[in-house]
Design goal:
Oligomer: single chain
Number of helices: 16
Largest sheet: none
Shape: globular
Length: 254
């Protein structure tokens, strides 16, 4: 499949009404909820992945059409295509290749320009770490400062989904052993009002403790546990022993 219309037609042909209703409840599409107004066809993620795998060479213009579709699964498909295209440029042979750098930069620029279209937590979580997150620690035509400025722009945007991208993208860097972005954006979002961000902050801190250093996590908690939202704190300490979890929770906000 080469066009967005072909993808959406294929998805419509596999629509599942029962699954659509389940997804609409699960992703909080009701009035006043965070996913208000989002529309689903009722495709499970593995099926959307399968469709995306048939579109790895789709043009940027056609991907843009998917990202601006009213259908949640179409937007996810567009994001998964970007993930695949970015991943193709990350082989050892291409890591330091100048043209590959430019292409990776271009994908990330496009991703950030369309970040508001990743407008639910699954869209963010399935795309941000393997595009923006990996890019943060890979050779690029951008300086480290310019990279931080780009993610800072998302973090301070006032848009929930862009803010979640800034936090969850740091998982990509954590997988390569770099905790600096997680620490930066965990502190930046520590007092965010939304529960979805509390979960994102706690999740990334937990991953930092698992993948990089449990002592680094303990150091962060020593500084911030008393002011952290309880949800963030619970997520951050989830893999610790029961006794230590109780100690940290006793320090947290009521």
């Amino acid at each position: 499949m080469k066009t967005a219309d072909e993808v959406i037609a294929a998805m419509r042909g596999k629509a599942d009404e029962k699954q659509r209703e389940i997804l609409m409840r699960f992703f909080k599409t009701g009035e006043g909820e965070y996913g208000e107004g989002d529309k689903f066809l009722g495709l499970r993620v593995p099926l959307t992945r399968q469709i995306a795998s048939e579109c790895k060479d789709m043009s940027r213009d056609e991907i843009a059409k998917l990202l601006h579709s009213e259908w949640h699964e179409a937007r996810l498909c567009g994001l998964l295509i970007l993930v695949a295209q970015f991943g193709k440029l990350c082989s050892k042979r291409l890591v330091d290749d100048k043209e590959a750098m430019k292409s990776r930069d271009s994908i990330v620029e496009f991703y950030v320009e369309n970040a508001e279209r990743a407008n639910n937590w699954d869209l963010v979580d399935l795309s941000a770490p393997k595009t923006l997150g990996y890019w943060l620690i890979m050779p690029s035509c951008y300086s480290d400062e310019e990279k931080r400025e780009m993610v800072d722009g998302l973090a301070t945007s006032g848009n929930l989904w862009k803010e979640r991208i800034s936090m969850v993208s740091t998982w990509g860097a954590l997988q390569k052993g770099n905790p600096s972005f997680t620490l930066r954006y965990a502190e930046m979002h520590l007092h965010h009002p939304h529960d979805l961000m509390h979960k994102a902050v706690g999740w990334m801190l937990r991953e930092m403790g698992k993948r990089v250093s449990i002592e680094l996590l303990r150091s962060f908690l020593t500084m911030h546990a008393a002011e952290m939202p309880r949800t963030a704190l619970r997520y951050a300490i989830e893999k610790m022993g029961e006794k230590e979890r109780q100690q940290w929770m006793s320090m947290g906000k009521e």
